[in-house]
Design a protein that fits this description.
It is a single chain. By secondary structure, the protein is mostly beta strands. It has one domain. Helices cover 0% and strands 35% of the residues. The strands form two sheets. The chain has a three-stranded antiparallel sheet with strand order 1-2-3, with no helix packed on it. The chain is flat, with a radius of gyration of 15 Å.
């Protein structure tokens, strides 16, 4: 089970300690939940799909730096922009 968050990134009030939005994976048999990835500042982690061989996952990162506090993905003083990221296992295995 894949879980993606789009919470308030203010890290204040009821959102204190939440940090950046993230993607979690849940084991439907044991109920265990683990973090899979953490998005850049002020983004929404959205959408997931796989390559036909399931060795690459594609995940959307929307509106990073919405309040001007990020320069993702290029760094420096660049303008932040949305992107699709490709994720592969180091061992080349199937994801999930």
């Amino acid at each position: 089970l894949w879980i993606q968050t789009d919470g308030n990134y203010s890290d204040k009030g009821g959102f204190a300690g939440m940090g950046n939005n993230q993607m979690l994976v849940g084991d439907t048999e044991t109920g265990a939940i683990e973090r899979f990835l953490v998005g850049p500042k002020e983004c929404e982690v959205t959408g997931i799909t796989w390559s036909a061989d399931r060795r690459t996952a594609f995940v959307g990162i929307q509106h990073p730096g919405e309040d001007g506090n990020s320069h993702w993905p290029d760094g420096g003083e660049s303008v932040p922009r949305s992107a699709i990221i490709a994720i592969r296992r180091n061992d080349g295995g199937i994801i999930g």
